[in-house]
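Homework-ish question, so no full write-ups if that breaks the rules, but can someone show me the predicted structure for this set?
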Amino acid sequence: MTARLLAFGLALVFAASYAAAQAGADKRRSGYQDMGEALQKMQDDDTANPGMLFVQLGGQLWAKPAGAENKSCADCHGVAADSMKGVATRYPAIPQGADRPVDLEGRINMCRTENQKAERLPPENRDLLSLEAYVAHQSRGMPIAPPYGPVVDAFRAQGEGIYRRRQGQLNLSCAICHDDNAGKKLAGIVIPEAHPTGYPIYRLEWQALGSLKRRLRNCLVGIRAEAWSLDAPEYVALELYLMERAKGMKLETPAVRP
Amino acid sequence: MRILPVLALLLGAQAAAAQPVTPQIVDDAIPTSLTGRPGDAARGRAIVASRSTGLCLLCHSGPIAEERFQGDLAPSLAGAGSRWSEGQLRLRIVDGTRLNADTIMPAYYRTGGLQRVARAFDGKTILSAEQVEDVVAYLVTLKD
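A: Not a homework solution, just the prediction itself:
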């Protein structure tokens, strides 16, 4: 009797602490939670979110034939709401036939050069960002789900190395700000946890849509480190690690940030 | 004829001033001025307040009311001049890693041991010897 009661009691205690652990488990905060209510409202309202204009432009480009093949994205992929759903949650990834991971904009450029026989779009090009925003928007609300495998894991490990290494004249690392001091104020700005949940983002300071790489370059320039060129594999490695840190968090594309 | 050696002396002195001085550390302080002269507290205050020169208020707060945006990654600079001697403050600006290897505070007068420094700043100290002395002169005045 007592043994059974005890077991029952223990089970209850475990269940309770399990529930508590579940509820308290995920303390991660998207940059969304660190910005003011006005900006949150702007992001949430599709008619006020400036990023949605680029999503619309991306939708037009999706259906527009391009390159020597004169094919549109839609000619191969059909309705983006079906074929692109969830895609952005697992990039950077290694596409079939490639030997290294590429990010979403890299994947879009692969389709341009290989399937459309069109020019690569340069980094931060408006059409490229719009297509990327349109594709990533199809995963809005879905949890980040990174891919695994020996090659992609090695790149991710390289990214974590970069994240933890001090660099630049100010001798700081990403981890010092975004792990150890997230939530504190750097000259009045709340340091976010650096989750890549909303990219490409509409950043008020830029007055434009911009990529995760552009954001990472801003941080590198801030600590007076030599920024890699925008096509460097180091960014893809960093993005892989950031996606792993944010695994399970929901995509917000197109996010608004200060 | 008599002018030449004087010129040589002057040029020699200038060349020496352009080299980064190697500060003499005694215990947890650098007792003597990096320039051989005292700094200017008013200029030091402007350096501490500046977002592009001193960068101090990125991390610290301090009694500089006109700068609304101050950091809270580090202790307030208020009272630094009563907590530390001039020499102790100088070492903390020059290279805080001598006291705490893990500190996040940048070493303002050191060029070695850094990785991937942007070309525009490579081989340069964050502040010049004169600027370090100005900042120290200002911090010394922060008694409460």
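Now go work out the reasoning yourself. Hint: The mean pLDDT of chain A is 92.
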